């Protein structure tokens, strides 16, 4: 019997995990034995204990629990879950994602009808309703953000130019293993375009379906911590170097884009956006530091 293994990597996610898992069971349209849920926790021991106690009490043995001894990043946590999974299809699901309608039968059908399909994503509601983004190597215009919003609105996805949001995706496990699974050199951020490029290089398909939707409980961040800026810049720098993308040219283009955004935000006295754009510019400039 074919099975979907749903991997949920958590980090201080006690307030999110119950609704997340409940939504899987509430909207499942396949047999329960066709679903395998694996929670991999990257939190410290105290937070992990509380999380696991809640899950055990509510779901008993219906959820496999894995404690990561050391937090080595989002990709490492997912690989740990994938290595323990038994499904032919793997779902990578953030704890702040919610099923809002049945879609697992559709997942099976799409993978069965296309033997080249490696990666599948659906329509995201939340986070400005952005289901996919421009790959860094294609962000050569100051209008990149507008292009992403427009193409998401009209549901125009091209896997050569865009990558799917990694909050909720389905992968053919055997194909994903062949391309090396998550690159654990990336602690957090930019895993999605890295995976997309490797799938395409092997000749596999990436498909976006607008017919089914899910909810992502994400809002616009008011502030960005120095740690987040450092991790983002390290991941982006690694990605640019890995795929031989002109690092200086990319950064110079993004610098112009953010300077323009900061000027406009100051003009309309939107101080929160000024702070956000300045943090994002700081992230870009960090890449050029050796």
UniProtKB/TrEMBL annotation:
Superkingdom, natural source: Bacteria
Domain Glycosyltransferase 2-like positions: 5-173
Pfam families the record matches: Glycos_transf_2 (PF00535)
GO molecular-function terms, A-Z: transferase activity
Record's keyword terms, sorted: Transferase
SUPFAM superfamilies referenced in this protein's UniProt entry, alphabetically: Nucleotide-diphospho-sugar transferases (SSF53448)
UniProt key word Nucleotide-binding: no
Keyword Transferase: yes
Name used for this protein in its record: Glycosyltransferase
Lineage: Bacteria, Pseudomonadati, Bacteroidota, Flavobacteriia, Flavobacteriales
